[in-house]
């Protein structure tokens, strides 16, 4: 019997690259937020560990995060059984949407169930952090999280009344035909940890006017400067009346937040005509 699980994308609400660390990573500050665009991961019983993917261009060897997740989980619990993993790939690669990390997190959850493991959340979170900096977020129960460290240290983010923060807007994603490797993106950014606005309360305010003037992703300008298609995607969403526009993560995807669903639909149609890969939905 096959087990399957959705692997949703995320966007970043602000992203500050603060400083270079001695281990080669960077300290960052960001807010992750899940959205409705997703891959699907499934697993079946098998003699060994293997992986297939609907996208023939996506490597399915040992470098794939799903297989890395499976091997780390098996090693941690001394599992001698296998699994056949299949990834139905929908999310674009190198777009800053966390697709590979989400796929890995879904694999951890599925194989914990398939193999009947008694794995608590702390154990899975520790394994996730070893796989990738934003993998732990995709095991997080709430729709959003404030993240520090290299992105793996998570805290709840709540509104003024104490409820978990959730975006109240229609999201339009425009993805240019540009894939960004994370090391390439970080090489473009000059770290800055001086006089940065307090990101957690800024995002929790939900004030899109403040966001337009204060909420910044440090990767946006250098990536848009190097890749005209990214800058053009920003311009399309601005011209169509988005209330807030930003790059997601360190990738090429640009998102716009719209308080008007009708404007959002028109923006998506325009971005489609311009040749971008698009998605419209809610968080």
SSE layout and pairings?
Blueprint: E1 3-20, E2 26-44, E3 49-53, H1 65-76, E4 83-88, H2 99-114, H3 121-131, E5 144-148, E6 153-155, E7 170-175, H4 182-187, H5 199-205, H6 208-214, H7 220-226, H8 228-239, E8 244-247, E9 254-258, H9 261-273, E10 277-281
Parallel strand pairs: 3-4
Antiparallel strand pairs: 1-2, 2-4, 2-5, 5-6, 7-9, 7-10, 8-9
Helix pairs in contact: 1-2, 1-3, 7-8, 8-9
Model description:
This protein is of the alpha+beta class and 283 residues long. It has two domains: 3-155, Ribosomal Protein S5, domain 2 (2-Layer Sandwich), CATH 3.30.230; 170-281, GHMP kinase, C-terminal domain (Alpha-Beta Plaits, 2-Layer Sandwich), CATH 3.30.70. The chain has nine helices and ten strands. Strands 1, 2, 3, 4, 5 and 6 form a six-stranded mixed β-sheet that branches. A hairpin with a 6-residue loop joins strand 8 and strand 9. Helix 1 runs parallel beside helix 2 and helix 8 runs antiparallel to helix 9. The longest helix is centred in the middle third of the chain and has 16 residues, at 99-114. It is globular. The two termini are 31 Å apart. The model has no long low-confidence stretch (mean pLDDT 96).
Quick rundown:
The chain is an alpha+beta fold.
Largest sheet: 6 strands, mixed
CATH level 3 topology of the largest domain: Ribosomal Protein S5, domain 2
- Kindly report how far apart the N and C termini lie: 31 Å
Tell me the overall shape. globular
CA-based gyration radius: 19 Å
Which percent band covers the strand fraction? Answer: 25-35%
How helix-rich are the residues, as a percent range?
25-40%
CATH class of the largest domain: Alpha Beta
Category by helix and strand content:
alpha+beta
Number of separate domains: 2
Number of helices: 9
Topology pattern, helix = H, strand = E: EEEHEHHEEEHHHHHEEHE
Extract low-pLDDT stretches: none
The CATH architecture of the largest domain can be given as: 2-Layer Sandwich
Name the average pLDDT: 96
Number of separate strands:
10
